[in-house]
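Just scan this pair:

***
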Amino acid sequence: MKRPHFKLGTKIAILSFGLVLMSVLIAGVVIVNRITGKMEQEIGYRAMAIARTVAQLKDVQENLNNKEGANLIQPLAERIRIATEVEYIVIFNMQRVRYSHPYLDRIGTVFNDGDEGPALKKMEYISQAIGVLGPSVRAFVPVLADEGTRQVGVVAVGILVPTITDIVGALRIQLYASLLVGLVLGIVGSFYLSRNIKKNMFSLEPDEIARILEERVAIFQAMDEGVIALDIEKRITVINNKASQIAGLNTDVRGLGLDELEVLRVLGDLIEQGGSLATSELLLNQTWVLINFLPVKVKDQIVGQVITIKDKTEVRKMAEELTGVKTFIEALRVQNHESLNKLHTISGLIQLNKVQEALDYVYKVTEEQQEVTKFLSQEIKHPTVAGLLLGKYNRGKELKVDIFFEEDCYLGELPEKVDCNLLTLIVGNLLENAMEAVVGKRLCEVYCRVKQEETELIVSVEDTGGGITQENQKKIFQWGFSTKGEGNRGIGLSLVKQAVERLGGTIDLETGNWGTRFGVKIPLPKQTDLVAKKNRKTFKGEVAKNESY
């Protein structure tokens, strides 16, 4: 069942009335208990006085053990009971035989209520019990004869105690008046209080304020750049996780001033130098960052500042990813590294006088590289994409990963609507992910297909890695999600998806124990100069496996 939702004014009214009601009820219970206790005490004193008076009567002392003593004692006890307005006066001898009782049929029976024992031992006391007539306070006084030397019986005087219902009934007018006054004051005060509170809270309900606060905190924490908010005294009011990470802060520093934190003191110095609305570059906790200062204004008055902190390294890496510069730099680095390794091998063989082996090695390397270069230059007409594929091929050799280019690979002149930078971003990231997926596996193979058809451009990259789990398949295109640890990870596939969507294409995923395949289809306007490509051999320098698709 859905719980009802009340507004703030209603909640305050209910709370105020509830407090008043509880206060009145608690006070009433305390007062009634005090009155009851006091009344029981007074009744006990009264019963004790009457019992002592009866116990002193000579007729009672002298006739308790006579068989016909009840004929004298009963009328005497009844006259006293009626005169004193007590509920009962019971007189019994040492054998507990009753000589008086309000009910005549009980005379001559044994008194056995359980609390008369001490009275038979010359003790007088007050006890509470539920008798025939109801709950009562009764006093027990021993009857002593022969000038108090011999006990002949006991006098029990009982007075009924008024119930709580009786007491509440007597006080009901006062209680009703208190409740009514409390209700009126509570309602009037609560609505006045709620109106003033809501006015100060911009007429927002508490759940709305809580939601706005949670959203603000979530937004700050989700930002990929550091955010520090300061008040007018340069004390920290908000700092997100990214800013704490960059500054190396492991504790909550909210409420502290910039001057109190050694690592952030330089930010305070920049503010003093007029850093507002300026962007500065500085070294913060051994990290080069970009700092931006923005004033916070409320009703045209500056009440603080917001500092944004960006890791310059991450900014540079992001720019490289977006522009494709990183891809070409990596390709050049790999080629340089591979060439040095080959030169060292040739030099070693010559120094060992193995001239023929050196010549064979030179021929093999030259032939393999020429075949790859020839294949890519003939089939991939776009120089940027061809250079990218060649660089990834050499990168694969360095990682001991075999990259196979499919037999029907072909890429001609691209239409103007197809951004070459986006295409290189897609191909480069897919190949890089595929190589990382197979490094260290028993079978380290990656299959690549780039095929331009009349109406669409197809990019397919398949690896022989361990596949992607069902759970991770839903997250791999999310920004920042990665199964390869922390750092600058989790942006490649997200960039790929964004690039594909910008080109109006689609991306499909197939995965299993055999590996993973990403397939991208980008629509193209129909071209008349497209050359059909048939019967081309699959390429890796040697022969690739057609059965992988």
